[in-house]
Structure formats: structure tokens, C-alpha cells
Amino acid sequence: MNDNNWYQSRCVIEIPAGISQSGFTLVEVLVSLALGLFLIGGAIQLFVQSKQTYRLQDSLSRIQENGRLAMESMVTDIRMAGYVPPSAVLPGIAISGNGTSNQNNDVTVKWVDESGHQSRVYAVGTSTSTQECAKARTSLRLNRNSGGLQELIEGVEAMRILYGSCTAVDTNGDGVNDRMIVISPFYQPATNITDWNSVCSVRVHLLMVSLADNVVKQPQTIYFPADTNNIWSVNDRCLRQAFTFTIQIRNKVP
């Protein structure tokens, strides 16, 4: 056998009888691709839903945490309004406020402690940072002892403050006021208060908004202040939650 015949014989592959060669048909390939696309689409949809759920829960957690922090700070300071230790004099009115709309209310609180004269001003103003949600570009700002307004809590869209007035009464004639008579209507805006020295209680309404947009599927129906039927105008998909808390001024209560 010469070299050429030997090479040709080595390259011959014999297929046993009864065994046929076959491959995937075009229909089978298309079905496989369709099934693969269906599975990939399901995985993508699951990922999108999980991410949206995470965004919703994260925004809600941030709103509730910011609302709690705002409430704790304002409650602590407003309760101190008018406090004066022995032999000290309060510089000015203990509590006062400005603003007539649902958005631009502010409150000023003064008292005296061991450190000296204290003053706090809470107001809603422009945030120092740009947020994804356009309505979250305002924040609760605090002016501590005339040091200038500083950002305290982000994502505060609006603040509405109402004031309750009382009259102190000495019922037993011992020279000590032991009873408070509520002046009706009790909670009123700042423009209706004629005697700030009579203010004995404060009700604060805060409208908190998520920093992220496209959190909810459609614009919410929000009532603000929360205990009214006033519908707050909403034209975006940011998440909102209204908070209401009432603060009793300790130094006005017998």
C-alpha cells in the first residue's frame, strides 16, 4: 500500500447500519428561542418589581424617620417656651408665628435656661441639595440662637402650624393659677392670634415627601392638614405622608 492509499483509508469513517444523522429543525430552534425569551422576560419583570418594592419601602422608611426626627426636635423646643428660672427675665414673647398658607408657616420659641437666653425658629425653606423629586427640594430649617437658618430635616414639603389659646384662672383665691380655660375656637392660624401670651398649645402639621420620584404608580390623594378635608395638589409620583402632633406648653399649664 502506497502512502496515498494509506492516508485515504485512515480518514474513512464508517457509520453502522441502522443509525441515521439528524439535527434541530428550524421550528425547534424557534421554539427554544421563544422559551428562552419568555424566561428572560420573566426574570427581568421580577427584578423590576423587586426594585420598585424596595424603592417604595425605602422611601416610606425615610419619610417616617424624617417625620419622627422633626417631631422630636420641635416638641422638645416648643415645650420649653416661656421657661424662666428664678431671678431671670424672658427676652420678648415666649412663642410667636407667621404665615397664612399651608406652606410657609414658621414658629419662634424663646426661653431661659442655665446657659442663658435661648431662641429657636423653625421654618420651611429651600433645600441645600437637589433631589430627584422636585417637591422634595424644600426642607425643615432651624435657626438656633440667631445663628442663621440651617437645614435640619430634608423632604419637608409643607408645614402648617395652629395655636391654641387659654386663660389661666385662680379658682380658690390663693394667688396661684390652678385651672386653664380654653379660648374657642381653640386651634387657629397665626394671623388670628391677638395675644401670644395666651398660647398654651401648638398643633403642627407636616407634609413629608420622598426624595425619589416615580415611587407610586399614580399621584396620591393627600389631605393636608391631615385632620381636614383639604386636598393637597399632587401631580407627580412621589410618595407623601402627612404628620400631625400636638404640643402642650408646660410653662402655661398649672
Could you explain the architecture of this structure?
The protein has 254 residues and is an alpha+beta fold. It has one domain. It contains two helices and eleven strands. It has helices at 3-11, 26-78; strands at 95-98, 106-113, 116-126, 138-144, 149-154, 156-169, 179-188, 199-209, 222-223, 231-232, 240-248. The protein has a five-stranded antiparallel β-sheet with strand order 1-2-3-4-5, with helices on one face. The protein has a four-stranded antiparallel β-sheet with strand order 7-6-8-11, with helices on one face. Strands 9-10 form a two-stranded antiparallel ribbon. The protein starts with a helix and ends in a 6-residue tail after the last strand.
In short:
The protein is an alpha+beta fold and 254 residues long. Helices cover 24% and strands 33% of the residues.
Structural class: alpha+beta
In helices, the fraction of residues equals: 10-25%
Radius of gyration: 35 Å
Provide mean pLDDT, rounded: 85
Number of domains: 1
Could you list some keywords that capture this structure?
single chain, 254 residues, alpha+beta, five-stranded antiparallel β-sheet, four-stranded antiparallel β-sheet, 2 helices, 11 strands, 24% helix
SSE blueprint and pairings:
Elements lengths: L2 H9 L14 H53 L16 E4 L7 E8 L2 E11 L11 E7 L4 E6 L1 E14 L9 E10 L10 E11 L12 E2 L7 E2 L7 E9 L6
Antiparallel strand pairs: 1-2, 2-3, 3-4, 4-5, 6-7, 6-8, 8-11, 9-10
